[in-house]
Design goal:
The protein is α+β, with helices and mostly antiparallel strands. The protein has twelve helices and 16 strands. GO terms for molecular function: zinc ion binding.
């Protein structure tokens, strides 16, 4: 692999292909732009958000980017922080987590390296031993621990569990390090010594190998189990490093992230929620984050059986409004969604999810209203607001961004309500005097009031 200095990358704004030295990557969304385009964008728009259409991540340029050693030439994360690589057992190519997940997510998964096309489906019935040997074997040849689900071949199982009659729980309540021995350093040491990685580990350690913290560089503590959640970085960390990370985030006014110095990827919704439970003394910090899961399909579910009726505005011949909707990290661009002005918020969200093909089982972490004259604001969707009139939301000239990434953001500041009040005041000011006089007597005094 090269160090990446001669690599050519594609700018998503000017469509140019430029060397790595002239490119900038936004964090945490990892979109790549050339330095000139990003400078012009920021000087004219004064926006804090990523320039990519459909992305509402707050743009931060991280200086500590490392060249990703993924062997896929089409990898979109070449400037990402250095993370664990997956070795394809059939062809021995090393892929980053994002390229591997994308490759195995199709009907006939093959290695994405150009000219390889080695089938990845051949490993469907095979697994890697979580013990020190890291052998690829058939699933039925493994023994699985009860506590953490580690899969061990027969030699590694005998090493960890010399007494076969006992329950298969990891010793001392600390789970096996599933990633031990996978690094290139361990493989290099094993090759240089003339022994296999398994033999090197067995000779060096007389006791079972346990998970160690991969957070701060000087930490030697035991890592937490099952943290972080799936589809995040693979760095297992201890509670002390997490607490130090939260302290630094409070000082820097930033979001929770992996404490590993070479990673710093932001934690997503499930992991941050777990941190809130693990660190109750940091309650004040977590109260500033939007961690209320109220955007699922259950919040707009309506089990009531109603009579079929004709919608009034359709009966009057009013045309539906067309609103643009987009899913975060979607390269297909926005879709036009038609909806009637006299509908309610719950019906609009259901139509939005239907048009964007978001099933009721998929998680949605937020609905955001993007306007030209103010910052993005979160649209609160729950059982209390689902019957709110769509017309009152004033979003007919806006774009709706649906967040499915789970990146945690700060709570909504209420500026959406302020914007709606300012717009209503402006409309009443621009109206003729006689019209304003009549509207004073017909104003709604509450959510249940009707026009006279």
């Amino acid at each position: 692999m090269t160090d990446g200095t001669d690599e050519i990358l594609h700018c998503r704004i000017c469509d140019g292909r430029l060397p790595l030295a002239k490119m900038v990557q936004i964090w945490p969304c990892l979109h790549v732009f050339c330095d000139d385009c990003l400078t012009v964008y920021r000087s004219y728009t004064k926006s804090q958000f990523c320039p990519e259409l459909g992305c509402h991540a707050v743009s931060r340029i991280h200086a500590d980017t490392k060249w990703n050693a993924c062997e896929n030439e089409d990898c979109f994360h070449k400037l990402s922080y250095t993370g664990d690589l997956f070795k394809v057992s059939a062809c021995q190519h090393e892929l980053c987590a994002q390229c591997y997940d994308k490759a195995v997510g199709v009907d006939k998964p093959v290695c994405p390296i150009g000219g390889c096309n080695e089938a990845l489906g051949d490993d469907g019935d095979k697994e890697i031993c979580d013990g020190p040997c890291k052998k690829v074997l058939d699933r039925e040849r493994f023994n699985t621990t009860i506590c953490c689900g580690a899969q061990l071949c027969k030699p590694c199982f005998d090493l960890y569990f010399p007494d076969p009659d006992k329950d298969m729980y990891c010793p001392n309540g600390r789970c096996i390090d599933k990633h031990y021995g996978e690094s290139k350093i361990m493989r290099h040491k094993a090759t240089r010594s003339g022994n296999s990685a398994c033999a090197t580990v067995v000779e060096s350690f007389k006791f079972p190998i346990l998970s160690k913290c991969n957070g701060m560089s000087d930490c030697e503590r035991d890592a937490l189990r099952n943290f972080p959640s799936e589809s995040e970085c693979e760095h297992e960390v201890c509670i002390v490093c997490l607490d130090k990370m939260i302290s630094e985030c409070i000082i820097a006014d930033s979001l929770p992230m992996c404490p590993n110095e070479q990673c710093h990827l932001p934690y997503r919704f499930e992991s941050v929620n777990a941190l809130r439970a693990l660190l109750p003394e940091r309650k004040k910090y977590f109260e500033e984050l939007a961690l209320e899961m109220s955007n699922g399909y259950e919040s707009i579910k309506d089990d009531h059986v109603t009579h079929i009726r004709q919608i009034p505005c359709i009966a009057r011949g009013e045309k539906p409004v067309v609103i643009k909707g987009s899913v975060s990290e979607d390269d297909d661009g926005p879709f036009n969604v038609k909806f009637v002005q006299c509908g309610v918020l719950g019906e609009f969200v259901r139509e939005l999810r239907r048009a964007l093909k978001i099933t009721h089982t998929e998680k949605v972490y937020g609905y955001f209203v993007r306007r030209d004259d103010c910052d993005d604001e979160q649209l609160i969707v729950n059982r209390d607001t689902r019957l709110k009139r769509f017309k009152d939301l004033k979003i007919d000239d806006s774009m709706i961004i649906i967040d499915v990434t789970g990146i945690v953001m700060a709570k909504a500041t209420g500026r959406t309500t302020e914007y709606m009040n300012q717009r209503a005041e402006k409309e009443s000011t621009d109206a003729p005097r006689s019209r304003r006089g009549r509207s004073t007597g017909t104003q709604s005094t509450g959510s249940g009031s009707k026009e006279k």
